[in-house]
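Thread: iron/sulfur cluster complex, take 2
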Amino acid sequence: MSETAAPVKGAKARRELQRAVIRFAGDSGDGMQLTGEQFTTESAWAGNDIATLPNFPAEIRAPAGTLFGVSSFQLQFGSQRVYTPGDRLDCLVAMNPAALKVHLRDLKGGGLLIVNTAAFEKRNLDKAGYAQNPLDDPALAERYRLHKVDMTGLTHKAIADLKLDTKEKDRTKNFFALGLVSWIYTRPLEPTLEWIGKKFTKSADIAEANTRVLKAGHAFGETAEFFEEAYTVEPAEMAPGLYRAMTGNRALAWGLLAAAERSKVQIVYGAYPITPASGVLEELAMHKRFRIRTIQAEDEIAAVTAAIGAAFGGAIGVTCSSGPGIALKGEGIGLAVTAELPLVILNIQRAGPSTGMPTKTEQADLMQALYGRNSESPVVVLAPATPGDCFYIAYEAVRIAAKYMVPVIVLSDGFLANGSEPWLIPDPTTLPTIDVQFRTEKEGFFPYLRDAATLSRPWVRPGTPGLEHRIGGIEKQDVTGNISYDPDNHDHMVRTRAEKVRRVAQEIPPTTINGPATGDLLVVGWGGTYGSITAAVERAQAAGHSVASIHLRHLNPLPPDLGHILREYRKVLVPEINSGQLVRVLRAEYLVDAVGFNRVRGLPLASEELLEAIHQLIGSTP
Amino acid sequence: MSAQEAGAAAAPTPKYTKKDFESDQDVRWCPGCGDYAILSAVQKSMPDLGIPRENIVFISGIGCSSRFPYYMNTYGFHTIHGRAPAIATGLRVARPDLKVFVVTGDGDGLSIGGNHMLHVLRRNVNLTILLFNNRIYGLTKGQYSPTSELGKVTKSTPMGSADRPVNPLAFALGCGATFVARTVDRNIQHMEETLKRAAAHKGAGFIEILQNCNVYNDLAWNVIYDKTSKLAYELRLEHGKPLLYGPPDARKAVIMDGVMPKVVDAKDVQESALWIHDEKNVNAAKILADLFAPDFPVPIGVLEAIEAPIYEEVILEQEQRAISDRGPGNIAKLLTSGDTWKIG
Ligand code: SF4
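Output below.
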């Protein structure tokens, strides 16, 4: 100990960074998700902008120490806008050999590598497929700033006197890592200490153990000789207001709750558990006080049809799934199209086809949403851009569904679902009104009478005297709703249903252009790639290039000003996590020579790679 | 219950006649189809339910039977193949104030929609389910159905079907149904009685209606249509009454011999050994469900009627409890709950 007790923060040199990308990686049982979430909260307290990327195995209890059992949590935090969780890592924490093996390739040369040496023993090395201990290879320390820390041993030392068994003590070592990395990046420990206090009310010993281990990790950073440097990341310039961390799945659920409250219309939510969509059902089930009724249906088909039954009864029907489940719901969605009932379908896209990679992200269900049903069955398609945007999109989906009596598909994805961002909490009274009028007037009533502006038919709650009527999946005559096989009527109805969806375009605000209104290149994105695209485009702009980007939240109908905007640029690039779906739509719809940038790796787009593609297209070198 | 719902419940129910339940649509079943008689019986029994017409909803799937809602002057929804029970479940969860009927057939309800039938029965959703069983696919023009007998020769099975039939009553009981009955399209009075009882049941009321498809499977149920055969085989189930059937001069009794049902001459059985029908006895109902001619009689009537928690009532009760414990939801409060931080 030095004689003058300098404050911990100032004890070693602290270098200011604009941003940092960190990944915690370990075994599924090592608590990496929690560690990452706590670090995120600490960074939010520090006032940074943040984007996160949890990444975990599909297996519930993957065998310990194996490569496929590795779980990780990545985040980027910065003093400027942070759009993505980051491509290459500044710091990797590897709790075991398998984590090192899986994640090392993402660490920047010269990056900070912190390993828990205790886990690098024969059995774990074998499981990870290392013939020799990689920590003994001098090349590792040459390429990276390697810090070998016996986290398990130091954890046990810190809590030796507590009456916990070895397993319980082992389990707290993630907080050693958290404490250490918190010290390195000058994060406040308070939020985690508070969290511990709230979480472990039942066991004082476990609370004490976690507290001590966290502080031990922090103190280790301060005292250990080899941490020559530590960092600060100043608060980001963010719009003033009250913030919270928001994940996409929670935002979808809360958007629905807000819509139920504002519209005063009951919401009935039918769903069947599926990764990564189950979180929405679980979130909603906690909020029965909002009079949202959830049905865990027997299958995907029952989930959508129960929602349709509820819509027939005068409720907003909502169903949620991921691609495979949406495929099963196709016929039901077609029924809602022809019965012209308000239905919201949330699709949390995942990597496919078939089971694919359930916990990995993708955005390859756009064509399914647009065309994946029999016959002509147009629906409205919306896509959120960020986790927090899911709130507004869910709300908008309900508003449109009710106003136009039409199904609305929302395309979220696994990245948005589990990723979080600091979210400026809105004042719910500023949300657009959802004005639902149930028809009660008998005079002149017909089930398919249409509103002149929206073409929507009247919504009647069963129980309304004098308005008893029958609807169904068979083609019906416009206005009367009577069964009709008349060829001209069918043609008219096909066109009417399409026109109704087209008219939703009147709800779309002018497209925001990020960059010059005319120029060399326009990058067009949709869905969860917003962050990667914006980051890449802003870097190209900073390098002086004439590049702009737009991000579509409305995919059907497309924004009315889109055709005009596309023509203002020499080239159009469409980055997607699929083999080129929106790009096809744009080419077909607007006859523009748009080209795709496509990676289908189950991961968010890397903005570095995208930046290269941008440079290639405009003929410059990065 | 919203003010609107309460208002509807408070209004006195008008005196209806059968005519009030007939819609203006042309009925499009084949002439002679058993569906006509069922439609008539349903329309006739509606006024006796004492429910305002606007609170009644008929939901159907696909098939000949599923055209039914179009002909009822109530609210109606003709949906997609097999899914009527799921649609009706969603409707009941949204609107527990409505009286909901599901009309389905052997193909719709037990083949493509078998899964939904299982779950609507086990959940005990408060619905009345009419399953028209004609042992054939009518609307698609005569393929065998899941209730067709093994070896059934149809257009899709020229050498006979290879699959064993499902028994709708046994299926329903196996699913944990709380009300299971059987009636016949040629017995209007019995249909009406059974319908009214099922409609009054609290929970899922399941009725198998033996129905004649005179075009593709004529007289499939002749065993209880033909006068002599009917007299010989029809076993009318009545709660508290012994299981006796057959012509007056040759009455027979079904009794239990160990764990097996057995047919004996009624005169040979002591009164104390008779099987007294008890609608609350689920195990007995399961045995009854499997009886059929020629070795056994054909049970007609209510096999089982028991009480169990109703799905949507439990959901509602939880909602009420959540509200009374912590007050109604408030989105502004929810948004600012938990960990938040201020910037600027
Ligand atoms: S095909 Fe058979 S069941 Fe269908 S309407 Fe004709 S007779 Fe009735």
